[in-house]
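Bug #77: duplicate submission created two jobs. Keeping one. Sequence:
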Amino acid sequence: MQVQPAPNLPKLPFPLQDGEQVIQLCRRHWWFLWPRTIILVLFALVPLAAVIWVLSALDILTDLVIFFWAGAVLWLIYWAVRLFFNWYRYHNDIWVVTNQRIVDSTKPFPFKLLVSTADLVNVQDMTIEKSGIIPSLLNFGDVICETAGASAQRFRIGGVPDPAAVQLLVDKERDRERMRYT
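Kept job's structure:
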C-alpha cells in the first residue's frame, strides 16, 4: 500500500458522508505489485524466446515466420491482459481512513465492487501483524481492526507500508471521534 496525502486523492469509488474528510488513503506495499509483474513478464517472454531459439536451431523459423508471429502476437496479448489486471487489482484495492470511518474498497474487476465500512467509534481492538523476513525487512504488514456491536467485523488492512503509523493514525482519529460524542 502506498500512502497518499489527502489533497492528491483519486476519485473514490464510494461517496463521502456529510462533513467527512479523507485523512489517509492506503494501498498495498509495492511488494504486492512488482514481483508478480516481473514473474508475469518472464512467463510471457521466456517461452517465446525458447521457441525462437528452437525454431532457429532447427532452421525452420523462416519457413514458419507468419504462423510464428501470429501465435506470438496472440500469446503476448494474453499476457498483456494478465498484466493489466494485475495492475488494475493493485490500484483498485484501497483502504481509506477518514475522520469518521475506515473504508475497505476492493474492485478486482471493472464490473465488481466490494465496499465495507466501520465507524471509528466502533473500533475496539487493533493488532499489527508482520510475518516473515520480507515484511520485516521492507516494513509492511497487516493492521487488524475489530469493531464492537451486534455486527462485529474485522477489518484487515493487508500489506500496508509502516503498519504502526497506520495503527497510530486510526487510534488518534478514533479517540478524537469518541471525544466528540462524549
